[in-house]
Amino acid sequence: MRARGRPDLRFAYLDSAIDYNTGEWQDAQIVMLGNLNGSVERNHVALPASLAWLPRPGASVGADDVRQRSRDFFELDLDVRAPSGWTVAGPGMAEPTGEGQRFAPTRPVPEVMLVAGRFDRRTTHVEGVEVEVLFHPNHLRNLDFFADAQAEIEKIAADRFATARELGMPYPYRQFSLVEVPWTLRSYGGGWRMDTERAPPGMMLISESSLPTARFEFRFRNPERFEDEEGGLPRAKANGLQQFFRLDYSGGNLEAGSIRNVFLYQTGARGPEALALEALFHNLVYQLVNGGETYFSAHLFDREF
Q1: How many degrees, rounded to 5, is the angle at CA 89 between CA 264 and CA 140?
Q2: Percentage of the residues of the chain whose pLDDT score is greater than 90
Q3: Is the dihedral of CA 21, 24, 28, 29 positive or negative?
Q4: Are 187 and 161 spatial neighbours (Cβ–Cβ below 8 Å)?
Q5: Within 10 Å of residue 131's Cβ, how many Cβ atoms?
Q6: What pTM was estimated for this model as a whole?
């Protein structure tokens, strides 16, 4: 099969419980979670799976409701060509080819998202996984700010990878990408649940209004306060960054998003109680790997927000 053209950015989330285009003004604050289903611009492309830019089985209505249709896990072998100087992020590690990049993860995936643009790329390795950070070249201030805390941040990440592996749920890809996306990109899915869209397989989408531009320096403007604490300023920064993501109620909780790779993207429930079962097991996995509890749904941003 061959296809050409641009995806229709309106054709997504057809059965969303709340539609900001037709909803009442009391629910207008849901726009805080983004209103663009995707992005195809001269300098940036974001193609969520919900756009159906890559063919999906069945009708688009009901695609986000596992009670109606269980997840379709499939093997992927995808070649991507992008303009010179662009970086492409997708499920797992890309392998260079003669004309572009190839995404062919060794494990099946339930969906595919691609993000491409001119990014500043930084990498490190944690527990055998390459962690890739792709930010806009004008949004590097916080990466430099946390440079002295890199070792402490990697300790936290290594603990999460190791804990998941010991529980029999190893991270399934060779790479994990943190990719900056426009704040206007929709962060919630469709169906009744309207769960996060910030955590596709092998990736975590970081809103430009989050880590790339947040003002962390105010919290640490008096570094001498942390000199007598265990780990000093670097550990304080790492703990502060962890708390920052845990308090993200807009779908950008990094810990909650990343563990989807070890459970929800490897198996799934089916039948009338599938939605409740998946929510229950996702929360249990989160507690086992990260400790504590977390929850996100766009319903949190309704008129009672």
Answers
A1: 110
A2: 69
A3: negative
A4: no
A5: 18
A6: 0.93
Contacts of 176 (CB under 8 A, 6+ apart): 129, 130, 131, 132, 202, 203, 204, 258, 261
The DSSP bridge partners found for residue 122 are 133
Q: Which of 24-33, 39-48, 211-220, 267-276 has the lowest mean pLDDT?
A: 24-33
Radius of gyration of the chain (CA): 19
Residues whose CB is less than 8 angstroms from the CB of residue 195 and which lie 6 or more positions away in sequence, other chains included: 64, 188, 189, 251, 296, 297
State the Cα–Cα distance between residues 282 and 295, nearest whole angstrom: 10
Which position has the token pair 């070792």? 151
Enumerate residues 6+ apart whose C-beta is below 8 A from 261: 171, 172, 173, 176, 199, 201, 202
For residues 198 and 251, the answer to whether their CB atoms sit within 8 Å is yes
Give pLDDT tens digits for 184-208: 999 999 888 899 999 999 999 999 9
3-class DSSP state for residue 59? Answer: coil
Give the span between the Cα atoms of 14 and 64, in whole angstroms. Answer: 9
Contact 249, 243 (CB under 8 A): no
Per-residue pLDDT tens digits for 266-282? 998 999 999 899 989 99
CB 220 within 8 A of CB 229: no
**Angstrom distance (rounded) from CA 152 to CA 158:** 10
DSSP 3-state of 128: coil
Mean pLDDT, the chain, integer = 92
The CA angle 166-277-170, to the nearest 5 degrees, is 20
